[in-house]
Amino acid sequence: MKVNELSVVNEIISKSIKKSISYPQYRALVAELVQKHSTTGNEKTEALINYTMLNDRRMKRWDKTVKLSNEAKTKIKSFGNKVTWLVITESWCGDAAHIMPVIHKVAELNDNIDYRIVLRDDNAELMDLFLTNGARAIPKLIMIDNESKEVLDTFGARPSVATAMVKAYIEEHGMLTSEFKEDLQRWYNKDKGQSTIEDLLKQLV
Q1: Cα 57 to Cα 65: distance, rounded to the nearest angstrom
Q2: CB 3.0 to 4.6 Å from 140: which of 1, 23, 156, 196, for a disulfide?
């Protein structure tokens, strides 16, 4: 990437971080939207509003039940670099509801990890820098070194295990069906966030 291009990227990321919110603020926002029968994002369809209500319940459950092994806790606490984990999301996103509470469980164990959140439709420039196979897939976690401002890596829109499941299904069937999406939700419930934790731990080196 050329110097001027890198400067533009850094500026977009910096602007997004400045208007980002914390995970507790995001949870409060989603709870408020549920009360107002609304959703984040440019579209306010009944379906997306219903997904926001469902995701609020999902996140409440994961906030209480996600567990980390002692080995994982030790690795997280020993991480010494100061980084920002900036997540792009929307309240209606089903994958995000399973993943974001897990990211929070990891980040809250180490003050060097600053977990921040922005909404996709309000940050189109940022989203378009971090497409997944050409799509604005969310949630997308951007890992940024606070000192150098370098993007160290990204995670998302799904844990690597789920990504492989989706890829294999599309190769066989050509598209994701409603039945597969239900199976994926069952996988998240059975996995209990452990695949996400494993993927995140790989970044803590």
Answers
A1: 12
A2: 156
The Cα–Cα gap between 51 and 153 comes to 29
Topology of domain 3-201, CATH? Glutaredoxin (3.40.30)
Question: CB under 8 Å to 163, separation ≥6 — which residues?
Answer: 157
**CA–CA distance from 155 to each of 2, 150, 152 (Å)?**
24, 15, 10
Q: How far is the C-alpha of 89 from the C-alpha of 41, rounded, in Å?
A: 9
Whether the ω angle into residue 157 lies within 30 degrees of 0, i.e. cis, is: yes
DSSP code, position 86: E
3-state SS assignment for residue 152: strand
Predicted confidence pLDDT, tens digits, the chain (205 residues): 566 788 899 999 999 999 999 999 999 999 999 999 999 999 999 999 999 999 999 999 999 999 999 999 999 999 999 999 999 999 999 999 999 999 999 999 999 999 999 999 999 999 999 999 999 999 999 999 999 999 999 999 999 999 999 999 999 999 999 999 999 999 999 999 999 999 999 999 8
133 torsion bin: left (phi>0), alpha (psi -120 to 50), beta (else):
left
User: pTM for the whole thing?
Assistant: 0.96
CA distance 81 to 69: 22
- Using alpha carbons, select from 97, 88, 87 the residue that is nearest to residue 54: 97
